Amino acid sequence: MLGPVDQLYPLKGGERKLLEFDNVLFLDPGLGGTGFAFFPYLDEEEHQPPTDTGVIRGKGDTWEARCCDVADKLVDHYQAEEDRSTVSWIVMEFPEQWQGNVKSLASANSGALSKLTFLCGVIAGAFIVEPDCSDVSPGQIVLMAPMRWKGQLPKNVVIDRIGEAWPAYASPRDHEADAIGMGLAAQGGL
Question: What's the CATH class of domain 20-186?
Answer without folding.
Answer: alpha beta
